[in-house]
Design a protein that fits this description.
This protein is of the alpha+beta class and about 450 residues long. The protein contains 15 helices and 14 strands. Strand 7 and strand 8 form a beta hairpin. GO terms for molecular function: diguanylate cyclase activity.
């Protein structure tokens, strides 16, 4: 009997072990599947935040590039014989923005001793025609300056440099939580992460992450560690130097600690969690479709009605109605496809100039509503004038301008928009390409 029972006992034990293994695999599947969905969705949201920030920083980069392009103009080449024309142009350009603090021309033998050592090195570098178009970069984090040098030539003769000094803090400003902007050497240019501040080195806090980031060949990705995850993007922000935009995420923010315990209570809980998650995602997508203008990517009239019920006079909001000048002529001459591209272009400028506390809507056709929170009417007007300047400076055809009227949100947003519309009409009557406020 003992001989007969031994194989039966072994067989039963084997089947029990297989069942336990299968049950364990099912539990692991039920735990990991919803967890992956939740992590992937949040990581995608964070990646989208970084992409938006990158676009904003590159827009600032294009502003600096447009000023450096002066080195290729005749007024820059004639500077050493006729300096006044260049000085007038640079003064006018600097007055339209706050990013670049100084724009000047120096010779290959400068009087300014600040640049003497650098210019001596650069002069040797530019003896080769292969380096003629290269831009030199010098960053002084402690003085918050980013300086770029572009060689100036008269024919084939190297005669000097166009020197651009930018405000490093404004050039690298990021506003979202737990974001780092790093230079090529790991120096923190800007930070909203509590563990690191500007001018720190990321290697002092996260040495392994910095090593892995340098070794990565990808322009965007995610690096996961025990306690934190790093969602990153690599891009060329200054000259040919690599910059890093990083979102530092506590892993508990991706998956709450109690999540595992809840899922271990049973497959029903896992199924319900997954169902609710998918339902929530569908609802958010539906909300996005309901409140977003498909062409411009801005909010639409439906969302404007929702926002108008929330704003009060005490909050310090100013409303502006912006309108693309002569837009019908653009459609008639170039067609509606090009007209749509113009609307997208103006929308991108508006998005780049407003903050997270502000609102932007496509009101209909070529008309936009922008509501900004600021301390005074003049500051509000400055914001909208900068939007107008950015639109007018686009080199892509067709060239367009915008007009606008600005009014404070005193009684209600609807009333402010009515008054702003009156001012918009005045701006058009006064020649367009103009922003008119209540005080005007």
């Amino acid at each position: 009997m003992i001989l007969n029972q031994t194989p039966l006992s072994t067989s039963s034990s084997f089947h029990l072990e297989v069942k336990c293994l299968l049950f364990t695999l099912v539990i692991i599947f039920l735990i990991n599947t919803p967890m992956r969905f939740i992590k992937a969705d949040k990581q995608a949201d964070f990646s989208m935040q970084l992409s938006t920030l990158q676009d904003t920083l590159l827009l600032k980069r294009s502003t600096a590039d447009s000023l450096l392009a002066l080195a290729d103009t005749q007024i820059a080449i004639d500077y050493f014989s006729e300096p006044q024309q260049f000085n007038d142009v640079s003064k006018q350009l600097l007055s339209t923005q706050t990013l670049v603090k100084s724009l000047k021309i120096i010779s290959t033998q400068p009087d300014d001793t600040r640049y003497a050592r650098l210019i001596e090195q650069y002069n040797r570098y530019y003896t080769s025609d292969l380096n003629k178009q290269q831009i030199q970069l010098f960053i002084a984090p402690h003085s918050r300056l980013l300086t770029e040098f572009k060689a100036l030539y008269q024919g084939t003769r190297h005669i000097g440099y166009l020197v651009l000094e930018a405000d490093l803090s404004e050039f690298s400003e990021v506003s979202r939580k737990d974001i780092l902007l790093l230079g090529e050497d790991g120096t923190v240019y800007s930070s909203t992460d509590r563990s690191l501040k500007a001018l720190d080195s990321i290697a002092s806090k996260y040495p392994q992450a910095w090593r892995d980031l340098q070794l990565s060949n990808r322009n965007a990705g995610i690096m996961e560690y025990d306690d934190v995850s790093f969602i990153y993007r690599k891009f060329k922000l200054v000259s040919n130097h690599t910059s890093y935009l990083i979102k530092v995420v506590d892993n508990h923010e991706l998956v709450p600690p109690y999540f595992y315990l809840v899922l271990l209570l049973g497959s029903i809980t896992a199924g319900v969690s997954l169902y609710l998650y998918r339902l929530r995602k569908d609802k958010l997508e539906l909300t996005k479709i309901t409140y977003t203008d498909e062409l411009s990517g801005l909010h639409n009239r439906h969302y404007l009605k929702k926002v108008s019920a929330q704003l009060t006079a005490q909050q310090g909001y100013y409303a502006c109605i912006l309108d693309i000048d002569h837009f019908k002529a653009v459609n008639d001459k170039y067609g509606h496809d090009i007209g749509d591209q113009v609307i997208k272009r103006v929308s991108s400028v508006i998005k780049s100039r407003i903050r997270i506390t502000d609102y932007a809507f496509r009101f209909g056709g070529e008309e936009f509503v922008v509501v900004v929170k600021t301390e005074s009417a003049q500051q509000a007007v400055n914001i909208f004038e900068r939007i107008g300047d950015d639109v007018a400076r686009f080199i892509q055809k067709p060239n367009v301008t915008i007009s606008g009227g600005v009014w404070p949100v005193n009684d209600s947003l609807d009333e402010a928009l009515k008054q702003a519309d009156v001012l918009l009409y005045q701006a058009k009557q006064n020649g367009r390409n103009l922003i008119i406020s209540q005080a005007a």
